[in-house]
Write a structure and sequence with these properties.
Order of helices and strands: EEEHEHEHEHHHHHHHHEHHEHH
Helix content: 40-55%
Distance between the termini: 33 Å
CATH architecture: 3-Layer(aba) Sandwich
Strand order of the largest sheet: 1-2-4-3-5-6-7-8
Structural class: alpha/beta
Strand content: 15-25%
Number of strands: 8
Number of domains: 1
Number of helices: 15
CATH class: Alpha Beta
Largest sheet: 8 strands, mixed
Length: 295
């Protein structure tokens, strides 16, 4: 996996270490994974994209082989603002001040915040299988709560979800992959590495803090943006799994247009939640068509 890529750990603010792989040539492209996975979710996509881009696939703080700091007051260390700044510093360490950005699931939420806080860094943005966090919470009903039960489980106060997941983290991760995807999402060696990264008490706590932040401080940041009229300023591509949940509950492109002043495009892919693993060829094609320089 990731043949031709090199690995590097980058020290960012607060002494947090962020693990990333870099490979390829061409304009820079940052790929951010989701829960409960790591950068390995891009293993079928990144090598092909590296033929046309310099690809960086990073582990978010709290995930994979990146650092897992304490959550801090109000879960601030897992705010999407803090997690986004990590990735700005990673790209700067690789020599990139401006780049294209793709985020899946939690990585998409980090990408959204990065594009709001650092619009000068992001040329184009793609988000996979999400709608904006604030819009999803506002629309919560029984259908949403049933499909996104983990949003409300993981935000419970320490240490209830940590203890319950920690009793059998491998089961919980496998059940999540099977429940949210359609068919086999990952090879056994990849699932084993996901479990390796997810199963430690520090990782379980960090990922819960990610969700706790999303229900608290991240919503405060979103509300402040809305009040100040801060909106996305770069073209955005929204991709979602046509057999998943987001497209059933939301008009995904229309929901993103509510927070954007730039062009928003959207397309469904015939799969479940784990788009880069379930339909890598389709994701490669969409990213190439959308992100390749023109002219």
């Amino acid at each position: 996996m990731f043949e031709g890529f090199t690995s590097r750990t980058v020290a960012v603010g607060g002494g947090v270490q962020i693990f990333a792989r870099i490979g390829g040539k061409g304009p820079p492209l940052l790929l951010l994974h989701g829960y409960p996975e790591t950068h390995l979710c891009w293993r079928k996509v990144a090598p092909r994209l590296a033929e046309r881009f310099t690809v960086v696939a990073a582990d978010l703080r709290g995930y994979g082989d990146s650092g897992k700091p304490p959550g801090g007051d109000d879960h601030v260390n897992y705010s999407k603002r803090a997690m986004a700044l990590d990735q700005v510093e990673v790209m700067r360490a690789f020599g990139f001040e401006r780049f294209r950005l793709v985020g899946h699931d939690r990585g998409g939420r980090v990408a959204h915040r990065l594009a709001l806080d650092h619009p000068e860094r992001v040329e184009r943005l793609a988000v996979l299988d999400i709608a904006p966090t604030a819009a999803m919470y506002r629309a919560t009903d029984r259908r949403f709560a049933e499909a996104y039960y983990h949003w409300f489980f993981l935000i419970q106060p320490f240490d209830l979800p940590e203890r319950l997941i920690g009793a059998d983290p491998g089961y919980y991760l496998r059940r999540s992959l099977a429940g949210w995807g359609r068919g086999a999402v990952a090879e056994e060696e990849v699932v084993a590495d996901y479990i390796r990264c997810f199963a430690s008490p520090g990782a379980i706590h960090a990922t819960c803090e990610d969700y706790r932040a999303a229900a608290t401080i991240d919503l405060e940041h979103d509300a402040a943006d809305a009040a100040a009229g801060r909106r996305l300023r770069m073209p955005l591509l929204a991709i979602w799994g046509g057999q998943g949940v987001v497209g059933r509950l939301f008009d995904v492109p229309a929901t993103w247009r509510e927070v954007s002043d730039a062009e928003v495009s959207g397309e469904a892919v015939p799969c479940g939640h784990f788009l880069p693993e379930e339909k890598p060829e389709e994701i490669i094609d969409l990213i190439l068509r959308y992100f390749l320089p023109t002219g």
